[in-house]
Amino acid sequence: MRNTTVRAVNRLTTRWARQAVTGNHGTVLTAAGVWPLLAFLADGAGGPARAELAEALGIPAESATAAARELLADLAGVRGLQAATGLWTKADLSLHGSWLTGLPEGARGTLTGDEDTDRKALDGWAADRTGGLIERMPAPLRKDTRLVLASALALRLKWIQPFRTGTVVLSEGPWAGRSALALYRSTSLLDRVRVTQTPTGPVTLLEVVGDRGVDVHLVLGEPDARPGEVLSAGAAAVTRAVPSTGASLLPEGNPGPGLHIGTVRSAGREPLLRVGTVAFEVGADHDLLDHARLFGLHAAADTRAGHFPGIGSEPLAVGSARQSATARFHAEGFEAAAVTAVDLVVGCALPRYRYRVRHAQVSFHRPFGFLAVHRTSRLVLAAGWVAEPVTLTP
Fold it and tell me: 249: helix, coil or strand?
């Protein structure tokens, strides 16, 4: 993947996480699904809308379509990841051939104007392209909808080393006293856990290695740290924008949230990292226009004028921009999916203990973040916050 594009998408992930991950609510977001759509819009935009979109993208508008096409092709080559785009327009909407030919191959359809017919077609596409993880296209299909441009990403991976399952009665923070589905594992690779220093305190990161070139990193901050700051700091660390230190080099004691390092007796000579976390499932629906300036859509959403002269001769404005996303972390692996849609309207794991070894114990037993990261490029494919674990009922 092109480094400039990866940095641009990761920049959007970090900025979005800082704004969207707030309070005590779980969420999941996928900037890698939004960024290509913004790029295609930028290619057809003019005036202030074009400038705003270029700023949000982090690259010039004139090179956006080529970068988006390349990114989508690269995503399609990631094992375990499905990527797709789709375009639906009203039959009487005339589009410029130069803009259409810039779009990647994908579904093309016609909006009939009948809400039930169109909803069935769009929801069917979303469900098919995500293997049923997302069942509904996040587009409102208003009477004045002239065009729907969508992307779908679906990621499925299995852990190289599965977790053992059990039950844990949590004793920290807002989850104290709750019985949850616990996940356990141990390894001699101490540096699977790292700590990065931030202005709001240390952040602990655990790398869980997937089987298809994608890993999931769990991110834990101090109890009083803002979730958005913790997740954005984690994104910066896993993408290597800021340094972090592995547990093999950290001092004994509690060098990071949820982390203890010391010495224990062991049957073998190798160091030992013990991990305890919880299973989780999280989903979210995002209205991108709630952060219109972040996504470069402030001017483009002004329906009093047209902002996309490069798309077609009809004056068009952004009527809605939304994403539906979901993620599931369990003993065997991880799944995540997102469908993003922009619609344009008329614009307007008891031996003998012979050795003493370095030992690290990390626990994620209170709200934490997660990031799914392509190992080679360091592109963040999904990011989110876990406000609720999978709990067990009596």
Answer: coil
